[in-house]
Design goal:
Residues 3-57 form the HTH lacI-type domain. By secondary structure, the protein is of the alpha/beta class. The protein is 45% helix and 17% strand. Strands 6, 7, 8, 9, 10, 11 and 13 form a 7-stranded mixed β-sheet that branches. A 6-stranded parallel β-sheet has the order 2-1-3-4-5-12, sandwiched between helices. The longest helix has 17 residues, at 191-207.
Length: 338
């Protein structure tokens, strides 16, 4: 049996109540008693009962997080950033993946709620099908949506300004001489997929360039490879391809180069995210950088202000992205990071 509060009290020569007050810090004791109790606890190796503390304080010191897939480098990066932010307050993170399934996502949320997490951070996998489970969870604990969000609001959201990011990418390839452009992205089941396509279309329309039909599949390297093959098979390459994430872009560059196309001489390619794949691409990928650390910090800050079922209108915080020019596009603009 481990060391108990009774053992600490006995060693310190105080009552159990005094030892409890000294260790919890919620009620004052004399400096002498506080020092005696702290010394006894350290000498005995006393560890507080986390379960008892949770029952007493009605908190568990844990936050649950649900993302669509941990294999996607972007979600790995954002999870790590959130965990770093939580460590500053001594809070632990419980992580689940929805596997891009609204049904699995709903079960993961119930699992985390059953573990009495103090709050939830979620990137919903489906803008429509995720609505019931996300809204139900938001009524029960503080909840913030990160990166993606559900249709109709109903819960706070922190993410990147997708439209601004796509405008940066489109304006960049046009400045490099592109007169025909195409978007390679995901099927329109998530808010990110929809916003990035619409942002591309608006930016291209403003510029007055030729826009080819979008290539929509998945946010994966494999889809990027397939999309590149489709462009080669069509017999006419666009001047530039703007991609919805870096995985698609890397796969597309690989496919185009394998098929004999030169990047960026024949086709300029720009991605979105600026995570691991971008610098490993050959040649290194021009992309739109998501402000991951800022997004994580803002999500954790916002979560700390929320109460379950808060009747106030949901907040939406969009953080500006940044263009990073490398070697899959032309030219390297002065003053832009390479």
């Amino acid at each position: 049996m481990g060391v108990t509060i009774h053992d600490v009290a006995r060693a310190a020569g105080v009552s159990v109540a005094s030892a409890s007050r000294a260790l919890s810090g919620r009620r004052k004791v004399t400096p002498e008693i506080a020092e005696r109790v702290a010394r006894a606890a350290a000498e005995l190796g006393y560890q507080p009962n986390a379960v008892a503390k949770a029952l007493r304080d009605q908190t568990t010191g844990t936050i649950g997080m649900v993302v669509p897939g941990i294999g996607n480098p972007f979600f790995t990066t954002i999870v790590e950033a959130v965990e770093r932010e939580l460590q500053n307050s001594g809070t632990d993170l419980l992580l689940c993946a929805s596997q891009y399934s609204p049904q699995v996502e709903a079960r993961r949320l119930e699992t985390l709620l059953a573990r009495r997490v103090d709050g939830l951070i979620i990137s919903p996998c489906d803008i429509e099908a995720s609505v019931p489970a996300v809204l139900d969870a938001a009524r029960r604990v503080p909840l913030v949506q990160l990166d993606r969000y559900i249709e109709g609001g109903g819960a706070d959201w922190v993410g990147v300004d997708d439209e601004a990011g796509l405008a940066l990418a489109v304006d960049h390839v046009i400045a490099g001489g592109a007169r025909s452009v195409v978007f390679a992205g995901s099927r329109l089941v998530s808010s990110s997929a929809r916003l990035r396509l619409s942002g591309f279309e608006r930016a291209a329309a403003r510029a007055g360039v030729e826009v080819l039909p979008p290539l929509l599949g998945e946010f994966t390297l494999e889809w990027g490879i397939e999309a590149g093959r489709g462009l080669l098979d069509a017999g006419r390459l666009p001047d530039a391809v703007v991609c919805a994430n870096d995985e698609i872009a890397v796969g597309l560059v690989r496919s185009l180069r394998f098929g004999g196309a030169r990047v960026p001489e024949d086709v300029a390619v720009v991605g979105f995210d600026d995570v691991g794949h971008a610098t490993m691409c050959d040649p290194p990928l021009s992309t739109v950088r998501q402000p991951v650390e800022e997004m994580a910090a803002e999500a954790v800050r916002l979560l700390g202000q929320l109460k379950a079922g808060d009747p106030r209108p949901a907040q939406r915080i969009a953080i500006a992205p940044r263009l990073v020019v490398r070697q899959t596009s032309r030219p390297v603009a002065a003053g832009v990071e390479g």
